[in-house]
Design brief:
The protein has 316 residues and is of the alpha+beta class. 49% of the residues lie in helices and 13% in strands.
Amino acid sequence: MKKIIICFSTLIGILIFLFLLFFMMMLMPVKEFRNKYVVVRKGEGFNQIYNDLGIKYTLTDKVYLKITGNGSKAKVGSYKFDGKVSRMEIISKIVSGESDEIRLTIPEGFSNRQVFERIEKLGLGSKEKIEQALKEADFPYPHPDNNYEGYFYPETYFFYEGTSEKEVVNTILKEFLKVYPPEKYPDKADFYNKLKLASIVELEVSKKEDKAKVAGIFLKRLEIDMRLESDATLKYELGRQAYRKELLTDMSPYNSYKHKGLPPTPVSNPSKETFDAVENAEITGDLFFFTYKGGTYYSKTHDEHLKKRKETGQLK
């Protein structure tokens, strides 16, 4: 009996020792940082986070994350580490979501002009320096006259204070290339035309079910050499809503009421959903559409189009 008690006491002692050792390893400073930032992206786990921080991901970390249930709780953001930091402090900060980032959100349909304004307001760089960084970028898709309209992919990006304009540009373009791998689209001219059309559709309708239909109407118009007649194209050039008189008289190459075919460049930064709608467009007999009070109405003829506009109250 005495031997059993001794063995039991020894086992308890070993377990306590291992327990204390385990938490000492988690609480001891693992590395000293000097203004080190790490960006946690959607879907990333602590294995990748540790790798970005230059820390070895060990069995101890796996066990701790399993016990605490924090293994899948890493919050998206940019985190700053300064001074001596323990593994537990790293995990705690990233799970809490207390990030130290500058957050840049590019909504679907934003033009590069709007993106540049937002970048400047956030203190991430001036329009001039962003454009200079774009001139130096190595990018596989068409960008005539250094025009990168359509390539600033709609997403939320995280940057740390002091990030250079070049890093901002490279991060955004890298995201675009991740969504649209160059090897998947060997015909770059065809891709660029689809991106142009997607940029127009993005500004015309917002519902997923309408995007493929509207894309089909525009493709049908292009096929029969009919003008696109989208207000969105001249609005892009003017930086504001175009007046009816301007749509009828302005000879800008972006005025699709005056010129046939697609505009010289995209007119917004479309989502992947909208680009996919162009690739899978629903081409029917419809040649006209309009949106009013949340609804989208389709017609085969101009007379039918005018009739529906009057019936809905969109045309007085």
